[in-house]
Design goal:
de novo design (two linked rop proteins); alpha+beta; 2 domains; 3-stranded antiparallel β-sheet; binds zinc ion; about 25% strand; about 40% helix; OB fold (Dihydrolipoamide Acetyltransferase, E2P); 5-stranded mixed β-barrel; elongated; 7 helices; single chain
Amino acid sequence: MKIRGLVLSSRPHKEQDRLIRVLTIENGVLLACAPGAGKTGSRHALSAQCGTLSDFTFNHSRGFLYVKESEMVEPFRGLYEDIEKLTAAAHILEITSDVCVSQDISSVIYPVTICALFALSETQKNTSPVISAFEWKVMDVSGYSADLSACPCGKSEKDSSFAFSFNRCRIFCLRPSCLSEAGKYKVISIGAVEALRFFKRAEASNLFSFTVSDEVSDELSEITRKYLCEHLEKKYCKMDMLDLIKDYSICESSE
Ligand SMILES: [Zn+2]
């Protein structure tokens, strides 16, 4: 039986094999050995690469899966165009790998991750909004959904700025009585609130078809990353490293 899956990680095993973790829609995350995949020109070398969507058939032997046949379906070539896209893809695979702990959650995350990789691979623009949409959707479907309805006071209909409360996981208006309820919060524009609402209701297939201004993109990025790191209790720092590289190259070119 052919199983389609996204290779989340691929590491060397024995002389020339690779151990791969494959995200599938119906079987959760599978761990398998791809014999000979570490050898250039091997029949599994391309399909067992990290970040590749491939079709596999497996053999069972002594409680372990071995790749018998494999065929690369989508290599997401655009990701290899620049370091920013590649780093963003690694960030997305890391989150996917961490949250897909059961078959149920894997089947929900699978289309989100695949569509995110397509969006990153094809975008000619900033990768940051794609990452924000991915991070927010993942939190939403993993049981960390935030309440994005209007402030409970009922007076915020026409407001243009709000407070997103990280510990209350909801929106408040900026009136002093409401802010005192918000705890730890960040002030965000109505544009950012609308984008978060869109991420929440969109299907994976159109989750990444939107545009935002650079200002809103920066606001989103700060909120979705912080929300993700706090709830998953992990510091996801791949994208921060990228910022360091960018800062460094700006310094270099200005000298
Ligand atoms: Zn209020």
